[in-house]
Write a structure and sequence with these properties.
mainly alpha, Cytochrome Bc1 Complex, Chain D, domain 2, about 110 residues
């Protein structure tokens, strides 16, 4: 079957190739500058040890603290997502402490 399809595919590509190379619109790439927060800040206050020991391995405290205020359920979902989807090195025994800290500093009232 491959022997029958391959010649047809080659003929199609060769027939369409000259038409594809005559595009009027040119692709223009532009450099973009992004200012990221300074990464030397740590979480502070009561309960911040778990966040410092687990979260700073992947991103800055400013990145977390610049997020909108979330409910306890939403913060738990975020922490679980970091651990499961992004494979963050979060110790499962620290998960409750991290959630409690995040709720204390960026939780909804």
């Amino acid at each position: 079957m491959l022997r029958e399809v391959l010649p047809i595919a080659l003929i199609t590509v060769l027939t369409l190739a000259p038409h594809c190379s005559q595009a009027d619109d040119k692709l223009v790439l532009k450099s973009v500058n992004v200012d990221l927060p300074v990464g030397d800040r740590m979480f502070d206050g009561p309960g911040s040890d778990a966040a410092n020991n687990n979260c700073l391995a992947c991103h800055s405290a400013d990145m977390v603290l610049n997020q909108p205020a979330l409910s306890r359920t939403q913060w738990r979902t975020e922490v679980e997502k970091m651990r499961t989807a992004y494979k963050a090195p979060i110790d499962p025994k620290d998960e409750d402490a991290i959630v409690n800290y995040l709720v204390s500093v960026k939780g909804t009232k």
